[in-house]
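Continuing the series of single-chain predictions for the mutant panel. This is the parent chain; the variants come on the following pages.
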Amino acid sequence: AQMSPHFIFNSLNAIDNYILNHDAQTASDYLSKFSKLMRQILDYSNLSEITLAQEIEILSLYVKIEQMRFPSKFDFEIEIDASIDSEQIKVPPLVFQPYAENAIWHGLMHIDYQGLLVLSVTKTGDYLECKISDNGIGRERAKEIKSKSATKRKSHGMQITQERINLLSQLKGRGGDVVVQDGSYNDSSTGTTVVITFPI
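Parent structure:
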């Protein structure tokens, strides 16, 4: 339910556009990724936890679809600490995607230079720290653009995810958290970083 209906609508329109332009191979590739993403979302939505590897696969599929729609607009990097076994560590499902979507649409779509979206995962004691960072325009500029926009769509994905992490913290008796910071993880002058912390 937290997946943006705009993303689904736009994806189907993109596939339709490839078909109309007789680009069957790209349409097939796009449809394959889109259907796999939808299947994984349906499979995982009833689970309280999935492996970190599965969560990263969902995020990667989503980002690849957006990169197909906006070729050469931004790069995507994944950095996982060598001490982390992503096949064993469990996280709530579908947590990363809403923050990545927000980074792409409100940060990276408005730049005139090469964009970068980075997921980095490290372990600190008994906690997993996941950072979703972009080198986009930043929160203040994004707010200015949104306030001038004729279409003010409201996304609930991030709010829902924050509430899920809070509930998980209460159930486990150990705190998880989401913090949004100005500046990307390697450059404090641009972009935004979302830091999601889970108890392991």
